[in-house]
Structure formats: C-alpha cells, structure tokens
Specification:
Elements lengths: L1 H31 L1 H5 L10 H11 L2 H16 L8 H29 L10 H4 L5 H44 L1
Helix pairs in contact: 1-3, 1-4, 1-5, 1-7, 4-7, 5-7
C-alpha cells in the first residue's frame, strides 16, 4: 500500500505543479491577450482575465500533470532498483517549471520584438480579433506553444534521468555487496 501511496504522491505533485504553473502562466497571457482565451478557445462565459487564467490554467494543465506523473511514478517506483520518492523528485519538477517559464518568457519577448504594425492573424481569427490586438494574441500563442514544447521535452528528460539515477544506484548497491 505504501508503494501505491508514494506513486500517487508523485502523480499528485506533477498535477499540482502543472496546475499552479498553468494558472501563473495564464495570468500573464490572459492580461496580455484576453482574446487568446475568448476567441481562440471555447467560451467559458467570462472575459475577465483573472477568471480566464484560473479556469484555463486548470483545464489546460491538469491532464499534462497526469501525463507526466504516471510515467514518472513508474520510472521512480517500479522494479527492484532503489526507489525514488516524490520529495526527491520535487526539486527537479520545480526546475522544469522554471525552465518552461523562462523559455516561454524569452520567446514571448522575441515574438513581441518581431510583431510589428504590419502583423496580422490568419482567418478566421483575423476578423474576430481587433486589428490592433493581433500581435498580442500571437505573442500569447507563442508563449503557450513554447511552454508545452519545453514541458514535453523536459518531462521526457526527467523520466529518463530518474531511470538513470535508479540504475546507477542499483549498480552501486550491487558493487558494494560484492
């Protein structure tokens, strides 16, 4: 039972961190471009940036936390190698979130520098977003795309790193036992 409980802690940590990151990220992008959430996403009945960030921050990220948490828990807990606990993974998960945030912010800054007066969105967004807000929506979209991409790649790296740490620990324990 303790094994399952610790695996659930890992999944829960990933879900919780993903949701907190999602809300924080969406607080920035919803204030930058409310249209990103009201035009480019299904409506949720509000155009308040704070409420949009809360709702979409949860809806768009809880499942990402599950998609990272389940394989990470398997990598950390299954098999005979020394197991890794949720508390040991937390710093690496937080580092991943920081890297995601920095990458998203950097790319949003680059997108802001690259979207001048002549920038326009493709149809059907072109007609649904005020012309002067096209660049803001594009910058928000870039931030989200980069965040998801870095999170996906970083999640794979974190899972592989966890497997490698466990293998090294198993090899060290076997060498000590000889």
């Amino acid at each position: 039972m303790g094994q399952l409980r610790e695996a659930l802690r890992i999944v829960g940590t990933c879900v919780g961190c993903a949701v907190l990151y999602g809300v924080a990220h969406d607080l920035v992008t919803a204030h930058l471009s409310v249209e990103y959430f009201t035009v480019a996403h299904p409506p949720i009945g509000t155009d308040d940036p704070f409420l949009l960030a809360l709702v979409w921050g949860v809806l768009a990220t809880w499942w990402v936390g599950v998609l990272l948490g389940v394989p990470l828990a398997a990598a950390a807990r299954l098999g005979g190698a020394p197991r890794v606990a949720a508390a040991e993974l937390r710093p690496a998960i937080l580092r991943l979130l920081v890297v995601m945030g920095v990458a998203a912010a950097a790319m949003m800054l680059l997108a802001a520098l690259g979207t001048g007066e002549g920038f326009s969105l493709p149809d059907p967004l072109f007609q649904r977003v005020p012309r002067e807000r096209h660049g803001r929506l594009a910058i928000a979209a870039v931030g989200h795309a980069v965040s998801y991409f870095v999170g996906f790649v970083g999640g794979i790296v974190l899972i592989a790193r966890t497997v490698r740490v466990r293998r090294r620990a198993a090899c060290a324990a076997a060498a000590d036992g000889r």
